[in-house]
């Protein structure tokens, strides 16, 4: 297999970055579908319309709320096609960005992502997730290429509640360890290629940044005032984490997000918090002797991440629930990226140790 590295066309970050949206949008045409979280539309919609209008770009607003289902995506795609758009601008959290990716894929056009929270690394990736009407994961789909522009206004992100930022820390902290397992065991990354060394080095840098600045950055979350530490950690959570997982690959920590929602109390737990607990389970299974598990547990306590299933929301999960979670986890593609083959019994025992 060939080594493959993928990335967005351009990444722009800083306080006031949103002001550049109109200029970048005008590079790709004069009509844009604005796929936007309905709440965010009320807060930022008029500003975005004015910024784009100043550069001759007209918007067709496509508000998003609730889960991204095949039915909701079909409706958005139909509206975008009828409007004859040249590009898609996706604004909001992970669900709005995922919807924007689905529309951009259907229209074969450029995508500009504008995250309003830093709860995960969706802004940079080509992946998007579809659910059914009962919040069950249906599929992980892919655009042909990553977003053309990722525009990260840290002044906007700093107004979001700290809970979103904490979830972003949980999602990003795993990437070094998952990429490490993927590369070491012949796994494939999100481009179906061999993970290049570059991806591992980026994932390593992501970990170092989070451990050094995560707690200080979290203190600024919700204040509306991004600090230098906040800027560094946002870059780690969105750009480094995104490049690290897509080009570096994933392992047990993310595979567990397929199984954990089947445990009572965990279906609504934020993705990033599920990953955080999943990473501790993965490190347990690795039987590491480098002290990293203790280091991360201490850091989790500093930033308020859960260290057990109970802290995540599960109340005394049964053996049957853990077995079902383990079964679904091991069926995920990423679970094969590990030092040794795992079975349900071994994974259940590790989950029980972190119950």
Automatic annotation (TrEMBL):
InterPro entries with a match to the protein in the record: ADH_Fe/GldA, Glycerol_DH
Cofactor note: Binds 1 zinc ion per subunit.
Pathway: Polyol metabolism; glycerol fermentation; glycerone phosphate from glycerol (oxidative route): step 1/2
Cofactor(s) it depends on: Zn(2+)
GO molecular function, one term: glycerol dehydrogenase (NAD+) activity
Keyword annotations from UniProtKB, A to Z: Metal-binding, NAD, Oxidoreductase, Zinc
CDD domains documented for this protein: GlyDH
Binding locations of NAD(+): 37, 94-98, 116-119, 125, 131
Protein name per Swiss-Prot or TrEMBL: Glycerol dehydrogenase
């Amino acid at each position: 297999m060939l080594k493959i590295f993928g990335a967005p066309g351009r990444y722009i970050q800083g306080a006031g970055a949103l002001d550049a949206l109109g200029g970048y949008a005008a590079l790709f045409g004069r009509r844009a579908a604005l796929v936007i979280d309905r709440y965010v539309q009320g807060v930022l919609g008029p500003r975005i319309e004015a910024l784009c209008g100043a550069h001759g770009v007209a918007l067709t607003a496509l508000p998003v709320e609730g889960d991204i289902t095949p039915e909701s995506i079909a409706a958005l795609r139909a509206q975008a096609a009828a409007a004859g758009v040249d590009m898609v601008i996706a604004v909001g959290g992970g669900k709005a960005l995922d919807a924007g990716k689905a529309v951009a894929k259907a229209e074969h056009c450029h995508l500009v992502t504008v995250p309003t929270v830093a709860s995960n690394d969706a802004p940079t990736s080509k992946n998007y997730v579809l659910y059914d009407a009962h919040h069950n994961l249906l599929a992980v789909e892919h655009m042909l290429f990553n977003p053309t522009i990722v525009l990260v206004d840290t002044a906007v992100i700093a107004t979001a509640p700290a809970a979103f930022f904490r979830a972003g820390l949980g999602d990003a902290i795993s990437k070094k360890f998952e990429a490490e397992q993927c590369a070491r065991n012949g796994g494939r990354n999100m481009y179906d290629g061999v993970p290049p060394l570059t991806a591992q080095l980026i994932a390593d840098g992501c970990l170092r940044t989070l451990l050094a600045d995560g707690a200080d950055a979290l203190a600024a979350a919700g204040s509306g005032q991004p600090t230098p530490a906040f800027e560094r950690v946002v870059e780690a959570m969105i750009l480094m984490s995104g490049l690290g997982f897509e080009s570096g690959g994933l392992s047990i920590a993310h595979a567990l997000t397929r199984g954990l929602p089947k445990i009572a109390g965990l279906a609504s737990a934020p993705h990033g918090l599920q990953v955080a607990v999943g990473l501790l389970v993965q490190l347990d299974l690795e039987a590491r002797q480098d002290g990293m598990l203790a280091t991360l547990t201490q850091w989790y306590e500093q930033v308020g991440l859960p260290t057990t299933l109970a802290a995540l929301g599960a109340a005394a999960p049964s053996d049957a629930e853990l077995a079902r979670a383990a079964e679904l986890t091991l069926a995920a593609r990423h679970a094969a990226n590990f030092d040794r083959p795992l079975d349900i019994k071994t994974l259940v025992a590790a989950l029980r140790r972190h119950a």
